[in-house]
């Protein structure tokens, strides 16, 4: 599953730099996560780094973009191939 930043985000800027896939960017009002790029840090870390650093706990699993661990691993592989 991709992650999602809630509107309780305080724009503290700590999540964007820790995202290894550059899936996080500043939206119109608060930070947003691109579901096409979010792998929940699979392939990079044991847990989503944005969730680890978020001081207001406003990052949740996005039920609209449900993915299995296998799908997230496949997405990670595809992202690494296109980066290469």
From TrEMBL:
Q: Which keywords appear in this protein's UniProt record, sorted alphabetically? A: 4Fe-4S, Iron, Iron-sulfur, Metal-binding
Bilayer-crossing residues are none
The UniProt entry, under SUPFAM superfamilies, shows: 4Fe-4S ferredoxins
Q: Which InterPro entries match?
A: 4Fe4S_Fe-S-bd (IPR017896), 4Fe4S_Fe_S_CS (IPR017900), PSI_iron-sulfur_center (IPR050157), YfhL-like (IPR047927)
Keyword Iron-sulfur (UniProt):
yes
Q: Which domain of life is it from?
A: Bacteria
Residues covered by the 4Fe-4S ferredoxin-type domain:
1-29
Which PANTHER family does the record associate with it?
Answer: PHOTOSYSTEM I IRON-SULFUR CENTER (PTHR24960:SF79), PHOTOSYSTEM I IRON-SULFUR CENTER-RELATED (PTHR24960)
User: Under which name does UniProt file this protein?
Assistant: YfhL family 4Fe-4S dicluster ferredoxin
Give the organism the record lists. Answer: Dyella acidiphila
């Amino acid at each position: 599953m991709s992650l999602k930043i809630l509107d309780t985000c305080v724009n503290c800027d700590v999540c964007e730099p820790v995202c290894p896939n550059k899936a996080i960017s500043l939206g119109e009002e608060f930070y947003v996560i691109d579901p096409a790029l979010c792998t929940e840090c699979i392939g990079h870390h044991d847990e989503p780094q944005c969730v680890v650093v978020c001081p207001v706990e406003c990052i949740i699993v996005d039920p609209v973009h449900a993915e299995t661990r296998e799908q997230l691993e496949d997405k990670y592989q595809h992202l690494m191939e296109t980066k290469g």
